[in-house]
Design brief:
2 domains; 462 residues; 13 strands; elongated; alpha+beta; four-stranded mixed beta sheet; Aldehyde Oxidoreductase, domain 4; single chain
C-alpha cells in the first residue's frame, strides 16, 4: 500500500547492525487485493528485521551458542563509525554492545534463563526472545531522495521570533500527530534562549504562518529535521539578540549573558534588558548595529547530509499454553539509542505506543479474507488490537550516541518499538516451542495467533 517504499527500506536494513561484508536478497512486490498488512509505522523495516533476527536465532541454535552471544560477536564496532553497511547505507553513530548490555541488565537476562529452566522442569513452555534493529530515520537528503526517484524535498525550515511582548514564537512545517513534537520544539527554543518553556509558542499546521515543508511528519523526522532547523534558527536569533543588547547597553558582546528572558552584563545584574524591550527597540529600527534588519527573527533551512540511524535491543519473555497455543507475554524490556533525547518522557511514550502496535502485529492483528477476497476482519470486533489489559509490563532504558551530522545530535525514535517487537516475540515463541520439540526454524511468519501456534505444537507430536 506504499508502492516501492517498503521494498526499498526492507532491503536497505536487512544487514541490520551486523558487520556483514556481503549479502544478497530478493524482494518482490505483488499487486493484490488481499494484502497481509498495510504500510504503516516502519513499513518494510519491521519485516526485514523479522527475517534477519529469526536467521540469527536459527544460526545460534545450529552452532549451539546463546542467541545473545552470536549477536555480540557480529556487531559493528563502535570505532568503525561512520560505517558503510553492506546495503550501502552510512550509519552515523552507535554503540551496539552498550545497548545490548543495557537491555540484558534491565531484563536480568541470567535470571530470566534461570526462571525458564525452572518453568521447563515443571512442564511449562516458557521462552526468551532477543532481537536487534537499526532504523532509517530523518528522511531528508534532498539529492539522495531525487536519486531514489522521490520527488519530495527532504529539507525542513523553521522561523523563530521574539515578539514585542517578550514571548517567543516558533513556526515550522512539521505537524503534530500526537507524538509531542510541539513540546519538543518548544523545549529546544526555550533551552537556547534561556527562557521558561511556557514563554514559547509553537505554530504548526497553518500554511499562512509556517514555512513550506515538502515532507512533513513522517519517517521519524520531526525532531531530526524540524528540531535541527529550530535549533539552528534559535541559535541565529540568540546571536542577533545579543548584538542588539550589546549596542543598547554599550557593552561587548562577549560580556553579555542570556538569562531568564533578559540580556545582561555578566557580573552586573542591574545592567540588563528584557526580551520585550529588545524586541520593541529592534522594531523601532533606530539604534541597531550596522547592517541589521529590524525585528528579532531568524529563519533556518536544514537539509540533512544523511539519514540518522537509531538502534535498539528488545528482550521478551513469553509462555505458550500447550492445550490452546495461546501466547502470554510475561515481560518486555527495551534498550534504545536515538542520539540526544530532547524529552525522555516523550521518547518513552513513543516506545510504549510502538510496542503496542508491534506486539499486536506479532500476536493478534490479522487481515483475514474469504475465498472471494472479501475482508473478514474489518472491525475491531474481528481485528484484535492490544488493549491496556493485555499489554505486558515494560521497562525501557536508554543509551545516547549523538548523531555527528545532526545539529543537536538527535536521531529519530518513533518507530523502533514497532520494528523490534515481532522478531522479539517470534524468537521468544520459537524458544518456548523448542521445549516441546518444535524445530526452531518452524516459526517463520507472524502474527502468531493461538491457532497457528497450536498447529506448530502438533508438528512436534507427529
Amino acid at each position: 500500500t506504499k508502492g516501492a517504499g517498503p521494498i526499498f527500506l526492507g532491503g536497505a536494513v536487512l544487514p541490520n547492525l551486523y558487520a556483514l561484508r556481503h549479502f544478497k536478497a530478493k524482494l518482490e512486490g505483488v499487486v493484490t487485493n488481499k494484502v497481509p498488512f498495510g504500510a504503516y509505522r516502519a513499513f518494510g523495516m519491521q519485516q526485514a528485521v523479522f527475517v534477519t533476527e529469526r536467521l540469527m536465532d536459527m544460526a545460534a541454535a545450529r552452532l549451539g551458542i546463546d542467541p545473545v552471544e552470536i549477536r555480540r560477536r557480529n556487531y559493528v564496532s563502535p570505532t568503525a563509525f561512520p560505517y558503510r553497511s553492506a546495503a550501502n547505507l552510512v550509519y552515523d553513530s552507535g554503540s551496539y554492545v552498550r545497548v545490548l548490555d543495557e537491555a540484558l541488565r534491565l531484563a536480568d537476562y541470567r535470571g530470566l534463563r534461570a526462571m525458564q529452566q525452572r518453568a521447563r522442569a515443571d512442564g511449562r513452555l516458557v521462552g526468551i526472545g532477543v532481537a536487534n534493529y537499526v532504523e532509517v530515520t530523518g528522511m531528508g537528503p534532498s539529492k539522495l531522495m531525487a536519486a531514489m526517484g522521490n520527488r519530495q524535498g527532504g529539507y525542513e525550515s523553521a522561523i523563530v521570533r521574539i515578539e514585542p511582548s517578550g514571548r517567543v514564537t516558533v513556526a515550522t512545517g512539521i505537524i503534530e500527530l500526537g507524538q509531542g513534537i510541539r513540546s519538543a520544539l518548544a523545549q529546544v527554543a526555550a533551552d537556547v534562549l534561556s527562557v521558561s518553556y511556557d514563554r514559547v509558542g509553537v505554530v504548526l499546521g497553518d500554511t499562512a504562518r509556517t514555512p513550506y515543508s515538502c515532507y512533513g511528519s513522517a519517517d521519524s523526522r520531526g525532531s531530526v529535521t524540524g528540531g535541527a532547523a529550530v535549533l539552528q534558527a534559535t541559535r541565529a536569533l540568540r546571536q542577533k539578540l545579543v548584538r542588539v543588547a550589546a549596542r543598547l547597553l554599550e557593552a561587548d558582546e562577549a560580556d553579555l549573558e542570556v538569562v531568564d528572558g533578559h540580556c545582561r552584563v555578566r557580573g552586573a545584574p542591574g545592567r540588563a534588558l528584557s526580551f520585550a524591550t529588545l524586541a520593541q527597540e529592534s522594531l523601532r529600527g533606530q539604534n541597531l548595529p550596522d547592517g541589521m534588519q529590524p525585528e528579532l527573527e531568524a529563519r533556518f533551512t536544514y537539509n540533512p547530509e544523511n539519514w540518522t540511524f537509531p538502534s535498539g535491543v528488545h528482550v521478551a519473555a513469553v509462555e505458550v499454553a500447550r492445550d490452546t497455543g495461546t501466547v502470554r507475554v510475561l515481560g518486555y524490556w527495551v534498550a534504545h539509542d536515538c542520539g540526544t533525547m530532547l524529552n525522555p518522557m516523550l521518547v518513552d511514550g513513543q516506545i510504549h505506543g510502538g510496542l503496542a502496535q508491534g506486539i499486536g502485529g506479532a500476536l493478534s492483528e490479522e487481515l483475514c479474507y474469504d475465498d472471494a477476497g472479501q475482508l473478514l476482519s474489518g472491525t475491531f470486533m474481528d481485528y484484535a488490537i492490544p488493549t491496556a489489559d493485555t499489554m505486558p509490563p515494560i521497562m525501557i532504558g536508554h543509551v545516547e550516541t549523538p548523531s555527528p551530522h545532526t545539529p543537536g545530535g538527535m536521531k529519530g525514535m518513533a518507530e523502533g518499538g514497532t520494528i523490534g517487537a515481532p522478531a522479539t516475540i517470534a524468537n521468544a515463541v520459537a524458544d518456548a516451542l523448542a521445549g516441546a520439540g518444535v524445530d526452531v526454524a518452524a516459526v517463520a511468519a507472524y502474527p502468531l495467533t493461538a491457532p497457528k501456534v497450536f498447529a506448530l505444537l502438533q508438528t512436534a507430536s507427529r
